[in-house]
Amino acid sequence: MNRIKTLGALKKSGYTSKSVKEELRENLITKLKHKERIFEGILGFDDTVLPDIERAILSRHNILLLGLRGQAKTRIARLLVTLLDEYMPIIADNELNDDPLNPITRHGMDIVKELGDKTPVSWVHRDDRYVEKLATPDVSIADLIGDVDPIKAATLKLPYSDERVIHFGLVPRSHRSIFVINELPDLQPRIQVSLFNILQEGDLQIRGFKLRLPLDVQFIFTANPEDYTNRGSIITPLKDRIESQILTHYPTSIEISKEITGQEANLHEDQKSVVTILDMHRDLLEFVSFEARESEYVDEKSGVSARLSISALENLVSTAERRMIINGDKKTVTRVADFWGVVPAITGKVELVYEGEQEGPYNVAMHLLSGAIKEIFLETFSAPKELEKGVVDRDPYGAIKAWFADGNQVDLLNDDDEKTYKEKLSKVAGLSRLVSDKNIPDDQKYAYMELVLHGLSELEMVSKSFLNNTVSFTDPFKGMFDDLQNE
Fold first, then answer.
1. Which of 178, 213, 272, 352 makes an SS bond possible with 356, Cβ 3.0 to 4.6 Å?
2. Which CATH number fits domain 7-247: 3.40.50.300, 3.30.565.10, 3.40.50.2000, 3.40.50.2300?
3. What pTM was computed for the model?
């Protein structure tokens, strides 16, 4: 089909024009009938967001994707291109993608009238039928709709009253395409008003021209819920004209969140071959995001993007890789201590409320890590309440607590080599046995031994302190007695 070069040949081929919304609808129906996956790479929305989008397309609606940051709104919008026909015919050298069978511009009509079936036809690939604009307060009506171009008027020697002097904006140039406006509330209200006619009547007007172009555009808007942002809001008449408003959300489970992070993290091939990321550490990483979304220090209205986990995983692997390089090792496994390397990925991804600002970004990140460590620890090992209620026959931590009570101490350096790291953990009486009782695989044994120390510190059975790049575990009463002696 895309080899056709003239309007006459296009007519003979049996090609019929259809609107972009009809095109999306027909291709969606075909994919649904063949059980094809439509939104490749979008995870966690199969039972919620994606069915709503499919219903909106079947209804030929313009769509508003409403949700907090990092919820794949733009990714979904870009994937809608896959529902377009692979190629679309246009009148050659036409700035508005004029349909050869139904031109809407003065230029297109004149060419068809003059050349008839000899009108040259070119083809546009579906990837070129996607236009995206980030809404900012400085966006003007001329940017979106168009304006008079004095240079064009002078060059063509035309009066300003001639519609050929118009320089079209992004919306007309999206004719027969998908047009996306990201962060819609950031558009000034008077600019949002300019979209009214296009959404309702499907045409637009530029300055004082009588011209009205019956545009064919599939609009997709994205926004944070207007109650959640102080930057602006979607004016009610515009919101009323957008037929389908679809709410997005964050992953509802650790497993889905892990899958998203693993898919999106940009790890170097060398890192993948030398750094082993334990599944327990992947869980711990996701718990940090879940903790942040419920933290009293973090603004829940701002949200915690999925990019936190993605950046954190990249930092975690790089922290382990750096340690491996420093120690001259050829391979390594991630450790809980490596999570102190992900703090920069956390502090830049969370908006703090007043209490969080008082704590400071670093301390908030440490609070989130502590909460995540406690959660992951209690998923595998017994909680103190179980000991008190007699659920557990004996105190599984008795030997460990006794070892620390005897004045022993463990100092784990962030950059300890593999041998030193294992020797330090093996010194703690009862630690190895506790992990072995849980049938932990041998290659993960020391990682869980380290987790136990961090977990016990979160439950205040062991004292934990930080100094430079070292974390020290001691008896919880040692510091108390030291303070008394000093006094």
1. 352
2. 3.40.50.300
3. 0.86
